[in-house]
Design a protein that fits this description.
This protein is α+β, with helices and mostly antiparallel strands. It has one domain: Endonuclease I-creI. The chain contains 2 helices and 7 strands; from the N terminus they run E-E-E-E-E-H-H-E-E. The strands form 2 sheets. The protein has a 5-stranded antiparallel beta sheet with strand order 1-4-5-7-6, covered by helices on one side. A two-stranded antiparallel sheet has the order 2-3. A hairpin with a 3-residue loop joins strand 4 and strand 5.
Length: 139
């Protein structure tokens, strides 16, 4: 999912679809532009410290959060399909886990969503829908 947003301090939610699943961390990038258009970032070796917790969010799709945003991730082609599905997943997350009504989620998303592109070089493109956590303070 080569995505610059996934960095130090980020929480990632990954669905586990099978028992005894493995987790692959992939390669580390010191820097990567949006879209990873050349097929790689500035690849580096690194030591990664992480923890795993079982979370009962049951989102069913990759998502995450950092200090500013909730974000949903989807991989597909064409890019607009990946972004549309990531947007639909964010809408569902806001309704099911943050107590927003459909109208509230739609209005807020229409004004506040930011999109990011993680990868457009692979077989499937990475579209990311970012929603500011500050908008959830009153909900």
């Amino acid at each position: 999912m080569d995505l610059p947003r996934i960095t130090n301090g980020v929480t990632i939610y990954l669905p586990v679809m099978v028992e005894e699943a493995f987790l692959f961390m992939g390669d580390a990038h010191a820097l990567q532009g949006a879209g990873e258009i050349t097929g790689n970032g500035i690849e580096i070796s690194c030591d990664i410290t992480f923890s795993i917790q079982i979370d009962n969010l049951n989102l069913g799709y990759p998502a995450g959060e950092d200090s500013e945003y909730l974000f949903t991730i989807y991989n597909d082609k064409p890019l607009e399909k990946a972004l549309r599905i990531a947007t639909n997943k964010m809408f569902k997350w806001l309704i099911t886990h943050h107590s927003l009504t459909r109208d509230q989620a739609g209005i807020l998303m229409g004004q506040l969503v930011n999109y990011e592109i993680g990868n457009i070089i692979s077989n499937k493109y990475t579209g990311v829908c970012c929603f500011p956590k500050s908008a959830l303070i009153n909900f």
